[in-house]
Amino acid sequence: MRTLGVLFLGLTFFSFPLSSARADELSVAQLKAEILRLAKSYEGKGDPDQSLQKTLDVLVAKLVAKAPMPPVNERISLVAGVWKQVWGPYDYRDDKGGIDPTLGFREIYQVVFADGYYYNVAPYFPGGDPTKEKIGYLRGEFELDPLNKNGLRVRFTRYPGVDTRPSKLNLWELPALSEAGKVENEITLVPTPVVVATFKGGTLDEVYTDEQLRLVYGTSFKPNARRSLYVMRRIE
Predict the structure, then answer these.
(1) What is the full per-residue pLDDT of the chain (236 aa) written as tens digits?
(2) Distance (Å, rounded) from C-alpha 24 to C-alpha 111?
(3) 2.40.128, 3.40.10, 2.60.40, 3.30.70: CATH of 5-234
(4) What pTM was estimated for this model as a whole?
(5) CB of 157 closer than 8 Å to CB of 174
(6) Is 131 helix (H, G, I), strand (E, B) or coil?
(7) Residue ranges covered by each domain of the chain
């Protein structure tokens, strides 16, 4: 597990969103720190009009300009790993930028495997009741998007989970165990045929990845879908 210290360099220097001109003056390390600071300040907040995202978009564009990325097919091994969502969409049932009360937003992880699949892992509260917590891990498969050098096309394949939070495991360890058929008392949150037939896939535009920070724009295949930013930090 690598230190995250460099990402927080200079966090105390900024107390409000930066103008585009001011952002031009920042180093790559400072831009990353400011992106994380802002994203953390937005944690748990919806973004119906995408006004929060727009403040981050400016910084993301500056970062990508100063530290351009090779095509995603050349950095799949870097994308692979465990990522914690610092900020991003909190309701996947629609595309309105609201908050799903059944989602444990403080523990949203994405576990990416280099051989073409990943899991979104998070607590799930049936009826919005935290005392009824389950853990869900939605499996998706990805392939390169021929229309975008940074793009991955995603389709979802199954949605298992567990009724009780494991006492001796981190949540992000469940996907690998599930792939091996070794999760005790695993349940099906949504039947696989329903997932395959009705869960809309989409694209992931992997605009920035390094050993600690990942910035991704996700767009579903729904008509007129919005382009939503995910800010993630590496766990391991």
Answers:
(1) 444 444 444 444 444 566 566 778 899 999 999 999 999 999 999 999 999 999 999 999 999 999 999 999 999 999 999 999 999 999 988 889 999 999 999 999 999 999 999 999 999 999 999 999 999 999 999 999 999 999 999 999 999 999 999 999 999 999 999 999 999 999 999 999 999 999 989 999 999 999 999 999 999 998 889 999 999 999 97
(2) 33
(3) 2.40.128
(4) 0.89
(5) no
(6) helix
(7) 5-234
Which structure tokens are listed for 9?
């360099």
Measured distance CA(37)–CA(157) in Å, rounded: 34
Q: Which amino acid is at 41?
A: S
CB 136 within 8 A of CB 124: yes
Q: How far is it, in rounded angstroms, from Cα 85 to Cα 211?
A: 15
Pick the closest to residue 154 from 189, 211, 196, 121 (CA basis).
Answer: 196
Asked if residue 231 lies in contact with residue 86, where contact means CB atoms within 8 angstroms, the answer is: yes
Task: Output b/e per residue, 97-136; b: 16+ Cβ within 10 A.
Answer: beebebbbbebbbbbbbeeebbbbbbbbbeeeeeeeebbb
Place of tokens 């992931």: 204
